[in-house]
Amino acid sequence: MLPYVTFPITHFSLLKGGPAEFHSSVPVTRSFCARCGTSLSYRHADYADRIDVMSCTLDDPDMFPPTLHIWTSHKLGWVKIADGLPAFATTKEAES
C-alpha cells in the first residue's frame, strides 16, 4: 500500500533539488529520488492539473492522514483494512 496525497499542481513545489522522472506509460510520469530511488510522485496526463505525492516523503506527513483506500482489489491477501475508512476496489470515481 502506498500512502499519497493529491495536490493541485499549482500548489506543490520542491524546495530543494529535483527528482528523476520515468515515463512508465504514455500518459504517466513517475518521479523518484535519483540518489536513493525513493518514489516521490505520480502524474497522469489526463489529470494534468494535479500531482499525487507519496505522503511519507513530506516534511510533516502527519498533516495528511488517510481519508479512504483505493485499489483494494490489488492488496496482498494478508492486508486487513480495519480502520473504518471508505474502501474502493478500484478508484473512488469508478464506484461513485
Strand pairing plus helix content: what structural class? mainly beta
What is the element string, with H for helices and E for strands? Answer: EEEEEH
- Strand residue percentage: 25-35%
Residues in helix, %: under 10%
Shape, please? globular
Terminal residue distance: 22 Å
Tally of contiguous helical segments: 1
Task: Compute the number of structural domains.
Answer: 2
Number of strands: 5
| Biggest sheet: strand arrangement | 1-5-4-3-2
Rounded mean pLDDT is 91
Main sheet characteristics: 5 strands, antiparallel
Low-confidence stretches: none
The value of Rg in angstroms is 14 Å
Which short descriptors sum up this protein?
single chain; 96 residues; mainly beta; 2 domains; five-stranded antiparallel β-sheet; 1 helix; 5 strands; 4% helix
Q: Could you explain the architecture of this structure?
A:
- With 96 residues, this protein is mostly beta strands.
- It folds into two domains: 1-57, no CATH class; 66-96, no CATH class.
- The protein is built from one helix and five strands.
- The protein has one helix spanning 92-95; strands spanning 4-8, 20-25, 28-32, 39-44, 50-54.
- A five-stranded antiparallel sheet has the order 1-5-4-3-2, with no helix packed on it.
- A hairpin with a 2-residue loop joins strand 2 and strand 3 (28-32).
- The two termini are 22 Å apart.
- 4% of the residues are buried.
